[in-house]
């Protein structure tokens, strides 16, 4: 049997296949009961109603079974709510390389948020516009660059 944490951390996000659920900050905890060997995984969904969560739960069970941990439970916790701040530095770099713009960190309470331009991941131009609230998946919005006219996905910030 291999380390259950390592097996679960390697599960990739089914919608954004370049990053793992660990890098996205979805994975909260992996606990193994020393007596029974039962593994309990705790995850927090990125967005309410994100259909990918069912796929993620199934992928986690499959990864644990492949690592020799057939007895596993996946718990979903909604508090504290996932925020884009939980995306790791490595995850942000991979998203940027894939043309997905990671949202800016959510400002602290009491700070009036400025509407920042979303930069084009292809040419870096801030001359971009949102084309559709829903991009290739329910969790991403589709944007288009006015400079190079390339479309790109932008993760919705909470
Ligand atoms: Zn561009």
From TrEMBL:
Instruction: Tell me where on the tree of life, at the top rank, the source sits.
Output: Bacteria
Q: Which InterPro entries match?
A: Fe-S_Maturation_MIP18, FSCA_dom_sf, MIP18-like, PaaD-like, Zn_ribbon_PaaD
Q: Which residues form the MIP18 family-like domain?
A: 5-74
Residue intervals of the PaaD zinc beta ribbon domain: 116-156
Q: Which PANTHER family match?
A: 1,2-PHENYLACETYL-COA EPOXIDASE, SUBUNIT D-RELATED (PTHR42831:SF3), FE-S PROTEIN MATURATION AUXILIARY FACTOR YITW (PTHR42831)
* Name used for this protein in its record: Phenylacetate-CoA oxygenase subunit PaaJ
Species the sequence originates in: Micromonospora acroterricola
Gene symbol of the encoding locus: paaJ
């Amino acid at each position: 049997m291999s380390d259950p944490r390592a097996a679960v951390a390697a599960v990739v996000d089914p919608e954004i296949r370049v990053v793992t659920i660990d890098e996205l900050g979805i994975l909260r905890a992996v606990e193994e009961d020393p007596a029974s060997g039962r593994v309990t995984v705790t995850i927090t969904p990125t967005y309410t109603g994100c259909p990918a969560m069912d796929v993620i739960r199934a992928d986690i069970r499959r990864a644990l079974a492949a690592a020799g941990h057939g007895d596993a439970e996946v718990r979903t916790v909604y508090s504290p709510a996932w925020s884009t701040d939980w995306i790791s530095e490595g995850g942000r770099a991979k998203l940027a390389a894939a043309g997905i713009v990671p949202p800016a960190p959510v400002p602290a309470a009491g700070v009036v948020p400025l509407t920042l331009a979303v930069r084009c991941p292809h040419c870096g131009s801030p001359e971009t516009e949102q084309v559709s609230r829903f991009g290739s998946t329910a969790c991403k919005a589709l944007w288009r660059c006015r400079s190079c006219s390339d479309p790109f996905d932008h993760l919705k910030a909470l």
